[in-house]
Fold:
Amino acid sequence: MISYYDSTNAGIKVAKCGNAACTSGNTLTTVDSAGTVDYDTSIAIGTNGLPVISYYDSTNADLKVAKCGNAACTSGNTLTTVDSAGSVGRYASLAIDTDGLPVISYNDLTNADLKVAKEDNCGGGTPLPAITLNAVPSTINGGETSTLTWTSSGAASCSGFSPAGWITEGGGGGACSTTTSPFLNGCQVVQPSSTTIYTIMCQNAIGDPAYQSVMVTVNGGGGGGCGLQMYDGTATVTLTCEDPPVSPLRIYKGTTTYGIGVVDTTDPNASRIRIQTSPGVIKALRKQ
Structure:
């Protein structure tokens, strides 16, 4: 059994060979020709002996699956859009799991991710949830926060998949305080110390999962921020612990202007001014 792209008619076709060498008795069938449905097709035989085909719908930029109604796919076929969130479905590869359900790996071009679909959706059953996830701001300094906001449809529950448990009751407070289980929609305030990819998992009514990810970039190289923010008269600024550790704030001594840095209390040039940058962490100020 072979699935392939018919470029003349912009459709997906299958060939059921009449013998082991495919030299005679072959049955050629167009499975889907709605719009341009084409390359990156993959085929496997289900536990019921019927072919299942995954392929890319380039007209709609979706991942689709055809479950054949008979061994030659000549009638009774079920065509299903498995994933339509953004531009998805290129480079699909399909296999049948030990539980008899199709498993498909494919490219999510919109988010530059590798995705996997496993569900009964290939038979026209329960579809995977659709998820959106955004970070505002998506780039922060050390010690600052970002708010992750998500929506879902077709989900029975959602959770913070990676880092594990990043979605919490109350969403970290503030505008996110109404976020509650089962977390189908909501927001979460996060404060990563380094650049972090956050992944949410939502499951449909039969437990099949879908995933979406977003990255929060933390400026500051290896040292990162120190978690201290001050108002300089025009805006809130963040002190840093990098080299050189100079903030936008300035102090005057005589006729000389100095920058302000945050250093370890053991620094030989540290002042006697101490600040707590995070619970249990004490730093010192130093002129630069």
